[in-house]
């Protein structure tokens, strides 16, 4: 297979699809950002082209061979990013010694990091929420302030599924979801965002 047909074979829709999927998955791993996806796709394609001389049609189909090469290259990209010895192009900055320019002056990175970020970094992060007794009291107060129709729905939802609540009240799913949105708005107004 000459250079022209080889390039055309590597650019077939099936292999391009595999490259897009692998680059999407790599971008979802720690240490990668979504905006890096075109660069990752290019690196995967470069690996295919670089290793094309190893392709033997007697041993495997082009798709199978390309999948193996792409799997290996994807693993190596992730591995190299996470290994400081190999990540020559990816410089990690120390929070203790690093700094950035903000409004014309150097600011140490440690001043820009929040306490929540520090807890994420050292593994001690816990979602802050009200103590269970206070949360239960706040929910009870918000539920007691609901109009009778929504109060009945809220009690049914606490005891069962949305489908069973709709059936018990004899309302359509559309009406059910509209009423649930109303309950959420009322809970948000009571300061219970994300708790409904």
Write the layout of secondary structure elements.
Blueprint: H1 3-10, H2 13-27, H3 37-51, H4 62-82, E1 99-102, E2 105-108, H5 109-112, H6 115-122, H7 132-144, H8 148-159, H9 162-169, H10 173-189
Antiparallel strand pairs: 1-2
Helix pairs in contact: 2-3, 2-4, 3-4
Task: Sum this structure up briefly.
The protein is mainly alpha-helical. The chain is 62% helix and 4% strand.
Notable characteristics:
two-stranded antiparallel sheet, 3 domains, 196 residues, Rna Polymerase Sigma Factor, Chain: A, 4% strand, flat, 62% helix
Please characterize this protein's 3D structure.
The protein folds into 3 domains: 3-82, Rna Polymerase Sigma Factor, Chain: A, CATH 1.10.1740; 93-128, no CATH class; 132-189, Arc Repressor Mutant, subunit A, CATH 1.10.10. By secondary structure, the protein is mainly alpha-helical. The protein is built from 10 helices and 2 strands. The mean pLDDT is 79.
Identify the overall geometry: flat
- Please provide the ordered H/E string of secondary-structure elements: HHHHEEHHHHHH
Total domain units = 3
How many helix segments?
A: 10
- Ends apart, CA distance between termini: 62 Å
Low-confidence stretches are none
CATH class of the largest domain: Mainly Alpha
Helix content range:
55-70%
């Amino acid at each position: 297979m000459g250079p022209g047909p080889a390039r055309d074979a590597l650019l077939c829709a099936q292999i391009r699809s595999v490259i897009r999927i692998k680059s999407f998955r790599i971008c979802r791993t720690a240490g990668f950002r979504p905006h890096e996806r075109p660069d990752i796709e290019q690196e995967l394609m470069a690996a295919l082209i670089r290793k094309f001389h190893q392709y033997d049609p007697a041993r495997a189909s082009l798709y199978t061979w390309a999948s193996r090469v792409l799997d290996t290259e994807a693993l190596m990209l992730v591995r190299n990013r996470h290994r400081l010895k190999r990540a020559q192009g990816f410089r990690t900055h120390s929070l203790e010694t690093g700094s950035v320019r903000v409004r014309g002056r150097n600011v140490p990175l440690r001043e820009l990091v929040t306490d929540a970020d520090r807890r994420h970094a050292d593994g001690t992060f816990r979602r802050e929420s009200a103590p269970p007794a206070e949360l239960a009291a706040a929910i009870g107060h918000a539920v007691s302030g609901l109009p009778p129709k929504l109060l009945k729905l809220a009690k049914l939802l606490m005891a069962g599924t949305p489908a069973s609540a709709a059936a018990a009240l004899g309302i359509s799913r559309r009406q059910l979801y509209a009423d649930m949105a109303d309950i959420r708005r009322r809970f948000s107004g009571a300061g219970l965002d994300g708790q409904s």
